[in-house]
Batch of 4 targets.
Target 1
Amino acid sequence: MARAKKNLRKSGRRHPLATAALVAVGLLVTGAAYAGFSQTSATAEVDLTSPATIEAGEKLFGANCATCHGAAAEGTPDGPTLIGVGAASVNFQVGTGRMPLAFQGPQGMVKPQQFTEEQTLQMAAYVASLAPGPGLPETQYLQADSDDEGIASGAELFRINCAMCHNVAAAGGALTEGKFAPKLTGVAPTHIYEAMITGPQNMPVFNDANITPQQKADIISYLKYIENQPAVGGITLGSIGPVAEGLFIWVIGLGAIIGLTVWVTAKSN
């Protein structure tokens, strides 16, 4: 009888690592759920028309932006007016880390965000309250579509309107006076859409009369498609076109052929 009880205890005993594994799984699930909730709920919880949100944004603006843009966003010699730029412009510039500027230069550089998403939206709400301007994009136009027709439409629109600066592979390109068109891979759909409707830096504005919201969504679908597709041609060489490819062939390819020829000749002698 005692032996049977002992066997029962042995059979019911857990592996020493079982508890640790359960704790690790629980932490992973909890962390993932929290991250997903905080990302999706931040925008939903911030009411851009709420007086409390606008007041909070005004305080943040006064402490962090007024030095360059003026106490009432009227602009100064160091920064343009923000009256009429809309919530979309603020969300793009601050959300991508371009603002506040790290240093004075030809254009703002992407860097880690200085403010939380909630704080960014509060400042966007304040600027939007000053005068009408482009608002935040609707969620329905931010979902990358896997439909071939939408991707093909986006590719054609991108080629006509964007590729001359950003490169057909969205790898970016050089402009004049030290400016450049940034690469568009790894950019959030929200910021791609906002860039099209606000025209940041040297980029033109593509309003809904030029490119409809659905066409903007198609462009986003195309960009996400090429971002997630493997390079079928092998090494991309930065995707900057025939100059890099020609240089690679002449320097590396031809150099390898010459080196091989010298080696074979020396060996035969």
Target 2
Amino acid sequence: MPTANRHIVKTIAASIEINGKPEVIWQNITEVKIEQFSDPLLFRLLDVPKPLSAEIIAEGAGGQRIAYFSTGKKFIQEIIIWKPLEEYSFSFNPEEGFRVGYFFELKTGIFRMLKGAYFLKNQEQSTTLKLTTEYSIDKRYSFLLQAPIKIILKAFQRYLLHSIKKNAES
């Protein structure tokens, strides 16, 4: 049985209101710098690598962004959609051996990060920033892992969004 057929694909989303212009927020989602923020204790206990920064190597659809983590591992992200000030989506493409939670290998394991996307919606006084994350879980372990993975991913999304908000509003 092909591995891809054994995985259930799920998507979760979170959003936040930011008192900032889309131009500033766009800069903070494409060129991320959050190493100055402490990661939540839960992430340290569960061995979730701390994101440090990300940089665009080539803009536009088909371009590339590299996300750096405290473990020395990277996501080599391929840009899927690039609509400045509106939408930015990418595939995660974790390096071989990128582990989360001590034993979840993100590239080929039972839990995989597939795609992420940011959506900006400009309001009169603020901007709504929405983050979606597409992931997959091996069907054989879905019953056991679906709820904890969803809880941890939601917490991670909130951490990223609050870090972006702090940067954009400072």
Target 3
Amino acid sequence: MTDLAQSAKTSRIRRISTRVNHLFLAGAVLLGVIVAICVVGPLLIATSTTDFVGVPLSSPSTVHPFGTDAFGRDVFIRTLAGGRLDLGVAFVGVVVPLLVGTLIGIASGLVAGSLLDRAIMRTVDAILAFPFNILILALAVVMGQSTTFWFLPAGVPGILVALFLTSWSVYARIARGETLSIRQRDFLVAAQVSGLSWWTIVRRHIYPNVLPATLTYALSDAVLVIGVIAALPFLGAGVQPPTPEWGSIIYDGRSVLSDAPWVCLGPGAFIVLTGIAVRLMGQGSRVLSEDAK
């Protein structure tokens, strides 16, 4: 009976793993195609994002697949260039809080109950007390469109700072919970008994076991970040024109939506497809992570 139960469990795990792999792979392939198009496309096409290429509000054609906007600019080129910017900002805006928040959460979990732990958790609670997307939007609006830094387009530093100041809190809470769970496991107790330093234990045993949980959330967080970036132009914030960005292209096209819907459809489709791709990857990794537990 025990062998039959074990065999059934193994078979179930294999079925779930196969389904998860298909979900994750489908999302990864779709996202890879989107990234490749957005990164390589503008390099292969000589037309600039600000060039006047035809009659304003021309309908889609073989020359201009997404038509032209109210200024006679190629919407397809602007959509690809905007995707390169949006995806780059989303990547940095997720990875930095992921790494920082995970380390803070691990540190908090290792000193659970201490003054440092309580201070970190109260800070996290204060940040999470506000609706997350509204808090990010508010901070980005306060930073404004004129903020510049190094080679980044105007408006992008404000978005990144808003993400850095808020997003780490969720990763810290997840990492703290995982750390508290891992501290009770036999392999960590054995590592402590063997005389390894805490830094070595964290690097070899805790961080690799905590990271999958925070990575799973990061994939879902990426969808939120892309949505927030696209929403900022409607609040008078975000990337400074004429730099193309998916949200700003849609914002500019709203006034001619009834006459030239193609101005909004192109970047809107890219946002939806990117969200679907990342969501598939997140769903696949989440099911696999839960099944592993």
Target 4
Amino acid sequence: MARPVQLAPSSLALVLSRLEAPGAVGGAEEPGGRAVFRAFRRANARCFWNSRLARAASRLAFQGWLRRGVLLVHAPPASLQVLRDAWCRRALRPPRGFRIRAVGDVFPVQMNPITQSQFIPLGEVLCCAISDMNATQIVVTQESLLEHLMKHYPGHRAWHPIIQSFWMDLKEDRIFCRTLKAQRAVKHSHPIPYCN
């Protein structure tokens, strides 16, 4: 099993609330997370009288924006400590149009990667290849399919005999139709790729 991955190390969460309703500004659109982050960083980088806070603000990186106005920021540990201290002393400045309701440490979000099989089901490979070729309007023949597979799956050498054995099975199962007219005749819940 793969080792867990830390997704949000060294992060702070800032819970923000708007000073006025978004509709009160003549139907102005709700600002996105990156815009709010830039406004927060700019507001604190302007504190020339507090060089530690200004320097810490310039080292911040945008980590994310959650619904309900939660801004996630990332920085080196020393810079995060400066932000914590500024919050405790009520010196941390909010982004324009907002007020900071709370600041807190975010425990690292842990992701456990799901391992994939090293094998791809052959039917899936052939169906995806034919679908991709149809999407780019390439006529699908055994030869063009073989060329497509060799280009996109270069490690496999036995494509030719595999294609011949599966070609008829796919058509018999009516997964693929010979023409677009025949495709319309087949009752199916989703579009069926076709080949020649």
